[in-house]
Design goal:
Blueprint: H1 19-36, H2 46-62, H3 69-81, H4 100-112, H5 116-120, H6 122-134, H7 158-169, H8 172-191, H9 195-208, H10 229-243, H11 247-271, E1 300-306, H12 308-314, E2 317-318, E3 321-322, E4 330-337, H13 349-369, E5 379-384, E6 387-391, E7 395-399, E8 411-414, H14 416-424, E9 429-437
Parallel strand pairs: 7-9
Antiparallel strand pairs: 1-5, 2-3, 4-9, 5-6, 7-8
Amino acid sequence: MPSSLTLFPPPGAPDPATPALLDAVLAQARGWLREAFSRADAYHGVEHAEDVLRRVEAIRARLPAALMPSEWLVLATATLLHDIGYAAHAPDWAPNRREHVPAGIALATERLARVPLFAAHPSLILAVAFLIAHHDDTSYQFPSLVWDGLVGDIELGAYSDELATFEAALPAEQRQRLRLLLAVLREADALTAAGAAGAARSFEYAVSRGLPLFAAGDPLGAWCWEVSAAGNTRLSAKRALLDAFTPEGWRLARESYRASEAYLTAVCAREGISYRPEGIAALLDGGALSSASAAAPPPLRIVRYSSEVALRAAGHARAGTNLWDAGANAYAMRHLPVAVLALPPATGAVADAAAGALAALHAYLLDGYALSLFDLTGALDYELAGIAGRVLPPIVERRSSGALADDAEWQIAGGGATLMLARTLEVSHVWVAMVESSV
């Protein structure tokens, strides 16, 4: 790979992607799709690819500057082929089928190498491969039960170094143009998984792979992929919020999120589950949650999410008492009004530092993950500005022989700073671990 290369022709130079050649290439790509998905795939097949392409075309029409023919060639080809790797599904794939990305790169590059236009301009093949490689990056920034609650990268194999070298060799302006094409593809692809139809698609796909309808603790919890069908549906709607980079895309993402929540409301009613909105729902029209294009990526990285079930199994020591051990304590996650919880006094530099750190964590969770700290029902391990940390939901306790009661007077055994932040931000409800110990 040369130290620098020209991916797209400079202004005024002849563009190899003439309209006739472009139409011919896209016709070939559609033929490869039909061949690959000879057995219909309702979630990632031909219909999905065409849906994403229609959305890409709509975004293209709204861009402030027109795409060059070769840029459109790369974007449209990658859009049609971005999920072709699912057609290569094998029994040894992971449940989340992350292998579809390198499989898609292999299928696409092998075929494009036989197309004269791409064979004469191999950098265009790498550009298509780059878009396929990174179209799902937002999804994979979240933890997954497939990785035991850890965040796991897509394994690109030899493509990883090749594509990193390719991107680094591009002049800054062309690298920026390639990233623009990726942003268009991400916004369009993410929107197909939100909204009423997208929510149904996400929910049914999760159920088809054997996931339970709801999670323990918070039935609709959406911190980790593959925990439940409801959680996956919410995570898909979050992806649309996070991948929106145009004003219209952000508007559509908000509308789609609300439609996804309406779908889940109906599912909850059908299954006899109490529906509760996420903490981000009230922030969609305010400044606390906005389009990802509004700010640089926050210095936050989620490392692992341990669900309530995992915490029960492992136990968690807090204040000298194993409050997470269900065998030692009556225990339940409850969504309580902040107003009913009596907060302990907290003053001094230590308390102020803890409050500031939690406020920053909450803001970064909203910006980078569309998550609210007050929806947490498990343990979240993270790195913030390179410093490792862990946060849990607040724990409240009462020594009694009676049953758990929502209207009881509870003693805060941990997480008082979270409750204080909730009160400061005028958050009405927060998930807490309620523990009733024997006297």
